[in-house]
Design a protein that fits this description.
By secondary structure, the chain is mainly α. About 80% of the residues lie in helices and about 0% in strands. Helix 12 packs parallel to helix 14 (about 330-345).
Length: about 425
Amino acid sequence: MYKDLVVRKVARRIVPYIFICYIINYLDRFNVSFAALEMSGDLGFSEMTYGLGASMFFVGYVFFEIPSNLIMLRVGARIWIARIMMTWGLASTCMIFVKSPFNFYLLRLLLGVAEAGFFPGMILYLTYWIPAGERARAFALFLTSTSLAGVVGGPISGALFKMGGVYGLKGWQWLFLLEGVPAILLGWVTLFYLVDKPDQANWLSSAERNWLSETIKKEQEDKKLGHSLTLWQALKHPRVWQLCLLYFSVVISFYGVAFWLPQIVKSFSGLSNSAVAMLSAVPYLSASICMVIVANHSDKTGERKWHVALPAFAGCLGLGLAVFFLENHYPLPAFFSLCLAASGIWSTLGPFWSLPTAFLGGTAAAGGVALINSIGNVGGFVGPYIIGYIKQTTQSFTSGMLVLAGTLLIAGFLALRVNEKN
C-alpha cells in the first residue's frame, strides 16, 4: 500500500520530533505544579495565589494565539516554531527569580505569551503532512506527549528537588532552570530539522513528495468546494463555536487536574515531595496508553463524536469516584479513580482535534484552530483557579473535583450535539 508506506515514513520523521518538543512544552507549562510542593511554602504563597499564578499563563496565551498562528502561515512553520520554543524556554528559566506573587503572575503571563501558537501551529503543521483519514491517530501520538510529560516530569522533578542547596539554589529553582534550557536548544535544532511543506522534504523520494503534495492539495480543494470558508467566515462558523464550547468544557478539567494532581495526591498520601512527584506519574502513564487506543479505534471506524463523549463521561465518573473514596478514607481506590479520570480526559484529545481539521483548510484552518484552542484555553484559567479558590475556602479538594466532573459531563453531552453535516 503506497499510501501506508508514505504516511508511515512521514510519521516516523515528524511525529517523534514534535512529540519530544511537546513533552518539553508541557514540562515547562506544568512544572509549576511540582515546583509548588516546595515553592509555595518557601515564598509563603496561599492556594489562591498559586491557583491564580498557574492560571495567568492562559491570559497571555489566549490573546496571542490567533495572531501567532496567522504569522506562522506567512513566515513558515520551521522559523516560527523555533522562535516560540526559544522564547518560552527563556521565560521558563526566568522563573528561578520569582520572589513575590507579582513576579509569579508576571512570569506566568509572559510564558503564556511566548508559548502562544505552538499547539495550534503543530496541529496545523500536521495537516500539511498527514491525510485526513490518519489524523486522529497522528494527533493522539503527538498529544500523548501531554500525558507522558507528567510521566517523566514526576521522576525528574523528584530528582531535582534533591539538588536543593547546590550553588545556593532551591530544589524548585533547579527544576525551572534545568527544564527550561532544553526548549532553547531544541528551538535551534528545529531550524535545521523541520521543513515547511512536503515538496521541500529531501528525505522523501520525488514520487513520494508528489503523491503526498497532491493528496493534501486535493483534500484542501475538496474542503474549499464543500465549504469555501474565508478566515472571517471560519471565525463565525456555528460548528467552530460548538467546538470552542466543547473544548472549553474539556480543558477546565484537563488543566484543573494537571496543575493540582501532585497536591491532591500529597493531601491523601502523606508521602514526601519526591515520592509524590514519582507517584503522580502513574495517572499520566495510564492516560498515555488509553488515548492511543481510543484514537486508533476512532480512525478505524471513522467516528469522532462518541470517541470524544465516552472518554469525557469516563473522566467524569473517575473524578466522582475519587471524591467518594476520599471522603470515605480509601486512598488506594481514590488514586486508581484519578487514573481513570486522567485516562478519560486525555483520551478525548485525538478524536476531538480531528473534528475541526476535517472541514477547515488554509487560513480558515489557521484561524479556526487557533480560535478553538484560545477559547478552550480560557478553561485553563478557570480550572486551576477554581480549584485553588475552593481549596482555600473549604480546606478540601473534593468540592473542586466535583466541579471538574460536572464540566466533563457537560463536555460529553456537547460532543454528542456537534453538527458534522454543515
